[in-house]
Protein backbone atom coordinates (compact mmCIF):
# COMPACT_ATOMS: atom_id res chain seq x y z
CA UNK A 1 0.00 0.00 0.00
CA UNK A 2 1.30 3.47 -0.85
CA UNK A 3 0.59 4.76 2.68
CA UNK A 4 3.14 2.23 4.00
CA UNK A 5 5.78 4.17 2.05
CA UNK A 6 4.51 7.55 3.30
CA UNK A 7 4.43 6.45 6.94
CA UNK A 8 7.79 4.68 6.68
CA UNK A 9 7.37 2.74 9.93
CA UNK A 10 9.60 -0.32 9.58
CA UNK A 11 8.16 -3.59 10.79
CA UNK A 12 4.55 -2.44 10.50
CA UNK A 13 1.81 -2.75 7.95
CA UNK A 14 -1.28 -0.63 7.40
CA UNK A 15 -4.47 -2.63 7.80
CA UNK A 16 -6.71 0.23 6.70
CA UNK A 17 -7.22 3.96 6.88
CA UNK A 18 -9.90 6.65 6.98
CA UNK A 19 -9.83 10.31 6.06
CA UNK A 20 -12.12 12.08 8.52
CA UNK A 21 -13.05 15.64 7.63
CA UNK A 22 -11.86 18.21 10.20
CA UNK A 23 -9.87 15.48 11.99
CA UNK A 24 -7.30 14.04 9.59
CA UNK A 25 -6.05 10.67 8.46
CA UNK A 26 -6.46 7.69 10.79
CA UNK A 27 -4.32 4.65 9.89
CA UNK A 28 -4.85 1.26 11.52
CA UNK A 29 -1.41 -0.36 11.80
CA UNK A 30 -0.02 -3.59 13.19
CA UNK A 31 3.42 -5.00 13.78
CA UNK A 32 4.63 -7.58 11.26
CA UNK A 33 6.45 -9.43 14.05
CA UNK A 34 4.69 -12.54 15.27
CA UNK A 35 6.85 -12.72 18.40
CA UNK A 36 8.04 -10.38 21.15
CA UNK A 37 10.84 -10.50 23.72
CA UNK A 38 9.93 -10.74 27.40
CA UNK A 39 11.47 -7.79 29.30
CA UNK A 40 11.84 -9.91 32.46
CA UNK A 41 13.77 -12.94 31.19
CA UNK A 42 14.71 -11.97 27.61
CA UNK A 43 13.09 -15.02 26.00
CA UNK A 44 10.96 -14.77 22.89
CA UNK A 45 7.23 -15.53 23.02
CA UNK A 46 4.62 -16.05 20.33
CA UNK A 47 1.73 -16.62 22.76
CA UNK A 48 -0.72 -13.79 22.16
CA UNK A 49 -2.49 -12.83 25.39
CA UNK A 50 -4.49 -9.68 24.49
CA UNK A 51 -4.79 -6.89 21.96
CA UNK A 52 -4.66 -3.27 23.11
CA UNK A 53 -5.49 -0.55 20.60
CA UNK A 54 -4.15 2.96 21.18
CA UNK A 55 -4.50 6.17 19.18
CA UNK A 56 -1.12 7.82 18.59
CA UNK A 57 -0.46 11.18 16.92
CA UNK A 58 2.17 11.17 14.15
CA UNK A 59 3.75 13.68 11.78
CA UNK A 60 1.28 15.25 9.33
CA UNK A 61 1.12 14.21 5.67
CA UNK A 62 0.47 17.01 3.17
CA UNK A 63 -0.74 19.28 5.95
CA UNK A 64 -3.23 16.68 7.21
CA UNK A 65 -2.99 15.50 10.84
CA UNK A 66 -2.15 11.79 11.05
CA UNK A 67 -3.29 9.46 13.82
CA UNK A 68 -2.15 5.86 14.12
CA UNK A 69 -4.47 3.29 15.63
CA UNK A 70 -1.78 1.01 17.02
CA UNK A 71 -2.34 -2.52 18.24
CA UNK A 72 0.21 -2.90 21.05
CA UNK A 73 -0.22 -6.61 21.62
CA UNK A 74 0.27 -8.28 24.94
CA UNK A 75 2.08 -11.62 24.94
CA UNK A 76 2.44 -14.22 27.67
CA UNK A 77 5.90 -15.53 28.48
CA UNK A 78 6.19 -19.34 28.66
CA UNK A 79 9.12 -19.03 31.05
CA UNK A 80 7.90 -16.31 33.49
CA UNK A 81 4.20 -17.05 33.02
CA UNK A 82 3.61 -13.28 33.06
CA UNK A 83 1.99 -11.11 30.37
CA UNK A 84 3.99 -8.29 28.79
CA UNK A 85 3.39 -5.66 26.12
CA UNK A 86 5.41 -5.70 22.92
CA UNK A 87 7.94 -2.94 22.36
CA UNK A 88 7.28 -0.65 19.41
CA UNK A 89 10.26 1.20 17.94
CA UNK A 90 8.28 4.26 16.90
CA UNK A 91 6.35 5.06 20.10
CA UNK A 92 7.51 4.99 23.72
CA UNK A 93 5.49 3.28 26.43
CA UNK A 94 2.59 5.31 27.80
CA UNK A 95 2.96 8.01 25.13
CA UNK A 96 0.25 9.27 22.78
CA UNK A 97 2.64 10.52 20.10
CA UNK A 98 5.38 8.99 17.95
CA UNK A 99 9.05 9.48 18.71
CA UNK A 100 9.54 11.27 15.40
CA UNK A 101 6.73 13.73 16.19
CA UNK A 102 8.43 14.48 19.52
CA UNK A 103 11.77 15.01 17.74
CA UNK A 104 10.11 17.35 15.23
CA UNK A 105 8.44 19.36 18.00
CA UNK A 106 11.70 19.63 19.95
CA UNK A 107 13.37 20.98 16.79
CA UNK A 108 10.58 23.58 16.47
CA UNK A 109 11.25 24.69 20.06
CA UNK A 110 14.65 25.95 18.93
CA UNK A 111 12.84 28.71 17.04
CA UNK A 112 9.67 29.11 19.09
CA UNK A 113 8.00 28.80 22.46
CA UNK A 114 5.97 25.98 23.97
CA UNK A 115 2.62 27.73 23.65
CA UNK A 116 2.92 28.50 19.92
CA UNK A 117 4.51 25.15 19.06
CA UNK A 118 1.70 23.35 20.91
CA UNK A 119 -0.95 25.29 18.99
CA UNK A 120 0.79 24.75 15.65
CA UNK A 121 1.02 20.97 16.22
CA UNK A 122 -2.29 20.43 18.03
CA UNK A 123 -0.63 18.96 21.12
CA UNK A 124 -0.97 20.15 24.69
CA UNK A 125 1.66 22.16 26.52
CA UNK A 126 1.83 19.30 29.03
CA UNK A 127 2.71 16.86 26.23
CA UNK A 128 5.54 19.14 25.11
CA UNK A 129 6.76 19.38 28.70
CA UNK A 130 6.75 15.56 28.81
CA UNK A 131 8.74 15.46 25.54
CA UNK A 132 11.32 17.80 27.07
CA UNK A 133 11.52 15.67 30.22
CA UNK A 134 11.92 12.48 28.13
CA UNK A 135 14.84 13.91 26.16
CA UNK A 136 16.41 15.21 29.38
CA UNK A 137 16.15 11.69 30.82
CA UNK A 138 17.86 10.24 27.71
CA UNK A 139 20.64 12.82 28.05
CA UNK A 140 21.16 11.87 31.71
CA UNK A 141 21.20 8.17 30.72
CA UNK A 142 24.20 8.79 28.47
CA UNK A 143 26.03 10.59 31.28
CA UNK A 144 25.89 14.03 29.69
CA UNK A 145 25.18 17.08 31.76
CA UNK A 146 22.48 19.34 30.37
CA UNK A 147 20.23 21.83 32.08
CA UNK A 148 16.73 22.85 31.10
CA UNK A 149 15.76 26.40 31.85
CA UNK A 150 12.44 27.96 31.12
CA UNK A 151 9.08 29.16 32.27
CA UNK A 152 6.40 26.56 32.78
CA UNK A 153 3.60 27.48 35.11
CA UNK A 154 0.81 25.02 34.23
CA UNK A 155 -2.57 26.73 34.14
CA UNK A 156 -2.14 30.36 33.25
CA UNK A 157 -5.13 32.74 32.93
CA UNK A 158 -3.03 35.29 31.03
CA UNK A 159 -1.64 32.71 28.55
CA UNK A 160 1.93 33.88 29.03
CA UNK A 161 4.51 32.39 26.70
CA UNK A 162 6.26 29.28 27.92
CA UNK A 163 9.75 28.53 26.70
CA UNK A 164 12.54 26.04 27.20
CA UNK A 165 16.28 26.30 26.67
CA UNK A 166 18.66 23.33 26.59
CA UNK A 167 22.15 24.25 27.77
CA UNK A 168 25.22 22.03 27.64
CA UNK A 169 26.75 22.64 31.07
CA UNK A 170 30.24 21.69 29.93
CA UNK A 171 30.35 23.94 26.89
CA UNK A 172 28.01 26.67 28.19
CA UNK A 173 26.36 26.69 24.79
CA UNK A 174 22.62 26.73 24.09
CA UNK A 175 21.38 23.82 21.96
UniProtKB/TrEMBL annotation:
* Source taxonomy: Bacteria, Bacillati, Cyanobacteriota, Cyanophyceae, Oscillatoriophycideae
Q: Which residues form the Transposase IS204/IS1001/IS1096/IS1165 zinc-finger domain?
A: 36-80
Natural source organism: Microcystis aeruginosa PCC 7806SL
* UniProt xrefs under PANTHER family: TRANSPOSASE FOR INSERTION SEQUENCE ELEMENT IS1557 (PTHR33498:SF1)
Query: What's the protein here called?
Result: Transposase IS204/IS1001/IS1096/IS1165 zinc-finger domain-containing protein
Give all residue intervals belonging to the Transposase IS204/IS1001/IS1096/IS1165 helix-turn-helix domain: 86-135
Would you say which domain of life the source belongs to?
A: Bacteria
Taken from the record, one Pfam family name reads HTH_Tnp_ISL3
Amino acid sequence: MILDKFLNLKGTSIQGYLHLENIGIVCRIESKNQKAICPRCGLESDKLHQNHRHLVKDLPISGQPVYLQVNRRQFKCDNCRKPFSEELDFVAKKRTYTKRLAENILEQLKEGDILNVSRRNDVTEEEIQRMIEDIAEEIRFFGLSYAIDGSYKGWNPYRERHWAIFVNCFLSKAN
